Give the backbone structure.
Amino acid sequence: MISRIPLRDSLSTLAGARLDTDVVVTNMGASRVWPLIENHRLDFHFNPSTMGGAIPLAMGIALAQPQRQIIVISGDGSLLMSLGSLVSVAAAGCSNLSIVLLDNGIYDVTGGQKTAAVDAGVRFDETARSVGFESVAMFDDAASWQADAAGFLRAKGPGFCWLKVAPALSEDMMTQQEPMGVQIERLRTELER
């Protein structure tokens, strides 16, 4: 049996490790749970039904804001929709970008179907390493993640952290995001300071 970190616990650890100047971009399932843990002016919940869109968006912010650390929280289903984004991040040399992959083995938002990566035995850490990520880590227990989260976020990037997490609670998946326009305006204002 695979050990998995409770999702809220994994995100609480991340919230405690981020700096006040770090930008956090979430997508799909993560965009519904992160606001229950953290409500920060530099958070952006990108969920206009663009599975896999958070990593490219975060890469654009990282390139435009090289003085800031950009953290993108994505799920395994979303990453499978855009594996090429890993190559783009590494090739662009986004040393200020950290990807935190929440791998629960299912598509949380669309009904809990198993991802193809489960049966294929995909090693997301080896995939990231093979395309040139500078810092790569994998955690499947809360204690190790708590001990190393801050160090991972401050390591030379681009960084890729594979977290094996439990599925989201069904009530957490009902979280409503702020309207996209409100989030865009707030983030733009904060990034211009």
User: Anything to note?
Assistant: Strands lie at 23-27, 43-46, 70-75, 97-103, 106-107, 113-114, 135-139, 159-164.
